[in-house]
Every structure is written in structure tokens, then in C-alpha cells.
Task: structure prediction
Amino acid sequence: MKILLDECVTKHLKAHLNEYEVFTVREMHWSGIKNGKLMSLCVENNFDILLTIDKNLQYQQNLEKYPVTIVVFNSYTSKAEELIKFLPSFRTQLADFKKHKAYLINKPF
Result:
């Protein structure tokens, strides 16, 4: 599973996803790239998932064009200690994710 952490997601989350192949936008030298081009780069570089907290991304792009899964953590902060709380739900749902779709993950209460 190859995952790209969007610019709005802290790089510190990567350490908590060590069972996957995870890259940050910055590591890929894609900082500042607009979402449409970023989606194309995900496809070209065989990413399975774009992980973000940008709730608008799924509405700004035609997901049918991109065989990538968008996963949105329903968070208002990118702090690692907050995003870690979403990981159990993410891992539970991972097997059901489909390409060309976006999924909103809520943290458990």
C-alpha cells in the first residue's frame, strides 16, 4: 500500500503508518502543486491513497479521472497527536476502500 500525505497533513504521521509505504508531498518535491496536478502525479507514481484533511478536495476534482483513493481525516488540525486518533478507523476501513472514491474518516468518540 503506497500512501501520499498531503501538504496539510503533518509529516509526523508517517512514523505511525510504518506498515505502509508512505511519502510526504514535500519528500516527493511536490510542494505547492495544485490538487488536479497532484492527483495526476499520484497516478503516475502508483500511489494507492492520498491522505488529507482537506474536506474540499473530493468536491474540487472529478474522481472518476484518477484511479486513486482519497482519504480525508475529519480533523480541523494537522497535529500528529490528533491525527493518530483517526488511525484505528482508517485501518479498519482500508480493505473496503475503492479507487476513484473519497472516504471521510471520523475519529471515535
The mean pLDDT is 92. The radius of gyration is 13 Å. The chain has one domain: 2-105. Helices lie at 35-44, 57-60, 80-83, 87-93.
